UniProtKB/TrEMBL annotation:
Superkingdom in the source lineage: Bacteria
Family: Belongs to the glycosyltransferase 2 family.
Keyword Flavoprotein among UniProt keywords: no
Keywords, alphabetical: Glycosyltransferase, Membrane, Transferase, Transmembrane, Transmembrane helix
Record-linked Gene3D superfamilies: Spore Coat Polysaccharide Biosynthesis Protein SpsA, Chain A (3.90.550.10)
Domain Glycosyltransferase 2-like, residue spans: 64-211
Protein name: Glycosyltransferase
GO molecular function: glycosyltransferase activity
InterPro entries: Glyco_trans_2-like (IPR001173), Nucleotide-diphossugar_trans (IPR029044)
Transmembrane segments: 12-36, 357-379, 385-409
Classification lineage: Bacteria, Pseudomonadati, Acidobacteriota, Terriglobia, Terriglobales
Length: 477
């Protein structure tokens, strides 16, 4: 009996060891590619001719689509930031998805909108539209009020309303920097290949100060939970996504700030309403559509554009967010499981999809189990000390090195946190984030996997504080 238990522990520990080895090898490869990509983006941004793009008559118009449901605390600041974006020709389309609070009223009052009949072509499937609001003195701003159908449904309504060849999805709790859209569009204009997706960096606005829809003072948030998320976002957007983009295997483009080609999205069927993370699903859908129809295309990730979003400020809200993200990831990889290891989809099928399916989607269960089992088997004498040290380094030490490296890379290239105190604090939290916070998030992700297999595929509402508490001045529009 004792021998059988030891063999069981050996078998499980071997699985955990292989998981951490594969994960860290892939992260190392992505890190190398990301270092090259980020440094090249930093150089091009330093010499970028954004003024030429701003004044060029051939710069494509863009529709900024903002799906909103009960976002009365943040929506005005978000719209103000969008109206201030430097871009030759843009539409700002806010889609109120059946809000029960004062979202519509606040927008109508702030921007003096009037209810009007506008031309609307329902090409993408969505719930019925109730009304359109418009101000002739601000022709670039349109408010749509519709029946609640979810975020993907609201985005489809926005696509139907848009007239521009490109559209940008923007979360209602996001603030975009003035030149961000120009920086997203630059690789689109410069490319000879049809660029159907252009993604950018997302940063956390908690702790920052706003004035008239713009971030005017960048500070770290005060709580440990929010600071850990800052480090996590930096690592994800500087070491993860640029690496996959280098391999032409983009898997995720954050819906908080993502530029897409309208016609291609419509041809692919628009945003799907059968997952809770439409921004993950649309990327896989576009890969599938373009490969199936033998389209030449590319997706790009630009590390310079900055979008600021509000992160969960309580453990409960963070748990809801991460469970939903993990549930959506599971839904997407299962929906597109035929792409896994399929050479038809290039590096997306051979590398990105398998990694996200087996490591990102299901790996959290192994990691959560390993977090408990590794110290237990060592304490009962079922694991050699050398193996224990190796697993601890792979599970905690290497992740800490990646986090610290991400912070240092951010500060040597983008430098979005100008205060020395904040940089030192980021380095400190990069070292401690892998102990405690990471395990907590892994548990939340594992719960999302359980939700998928138990059929609890529901959207969990994440309540934000809103930007109004951090606004210094809000001038009249």
């Amino acid at each position: 009996m004792h021998s059988a238990v030891l063999h069981f522990f050996d078998y499980v520990n071997a699985i955990i060891l292989v998981y951490f080895l594969v994960t860290n090898v892939v992260y190392t490869v992505l890190m190398v590619f990301s270092l090259y990509t980020v440094s090249m983006h930093a150089k091009s941004a330093a010499h970028g001719a954004y003024a030429d793009l701003l004044e060029s008559p051939v710069t494509p118009p863009v529709a900024l689509i903002v799906p909103a449901h009960n976002e009365e605390d943040a929506i005005v600041q978000t719209v103000m930031s969008l109206l201030e974006i430097q871009y030759p020709e843009k539409e700002v389309i806010v889609v109120d998805d059946g809000s029960t609070d004062g979202t519509v009223d606040k927008l109508v009052q702030k921007f003096h909108l009037l209810r009007m009949d506008l031309i609307y072509r329902p090409q993408a499937t969505c719930k019925p539209v109730f009304a359109f609001y418009f101000n002739p003195e601000r022709p670039e701003l349109i408010l749509i009020s519709k029946e609640n159908g979810g975020k993907a449904d609201a985005l489809n309504a926005g696509i139907n309303m848009a007239r521009s060849p490109y559209f940008c999805t923007v979360d209602a709790d996001s603030i975009i920097e003035p030149q961000a859209l120009l920086r997203l569009m630059a690789p689109v204009v410069e490319s000879t290949v049809n660029t159907i997706v252009s993604g950018g960096v997302v940063r956390i606005a908690n702790g920052c100060t706003l004035r008239n829809g713009r971030i005017v003072d960048v500070n770290l948030p005060k709580t440990w939970l929010e600071r850990c998320q800052v480090v996590e976002y930096i690592r994800t957007f500087l070491f993860g996504r640029p690496g996959w983009n280098f391999l032409n295997a983009t898997f995720i483009c954050s819906g908080a700030f993502c530029l897409l080609h309208r016609e291609t999205v419509l041809e692919a069927g628009g945003f799907s309403r059968d997952t809770v993370t439409e921004d993950i699903d649309i990327i896989a859908t576009l890969h599938r559509f373009c490969k199936k129809n033998h389209r030449q295309y590319r997706m790009v990730f630009t590390t310079d554009p900055i979008c600021w979003t509000e992160a969960p400020h309580t453990v409960g809200m963070l748990a809801r967010q991460r469970r939903r993200w993990q549930l959506g990831l599971m839904q997407t990889v299962m929906k597109h499981n035929d792409m896994i290891f399929s050479p038809r989809y290039g590096m997306m099928g051979l590398a990105s999809m398998p990694f996200h399916a087996y490591v990102e989607a299901l790996g959290c269960v192994i990691e959560a189990f390993g977090t408990i089992l590794i110290p237990f088997t060592f304490l009962v004498g079922a694991m050699p000390f050398s193996l224990f040290l190796l697993l601890m380094f792979l599970a905690f030490g290497y992740g800490t090195l990646l986090s610290v490296g991400s912070v240092l890379l951010e500060e040597t290239t983008l430098r979005r946190y100008p205060k020395v105190r904040d940089v030192l604090m980021l380095v400190l939290f990069a070292m401690i984030e892998n102990v405690g916070y990471r395990q907590m998030v892994t548990l939340f992700r594992a719960q999302g996997v359980i939700q998928y297999f138990t059929g609890l595929n529901k959207w969990e509402l994440v309540v934000h504080k809103g930007f109004e508490s951090r606004v210094l001045v809000e001038d009249e529009v």
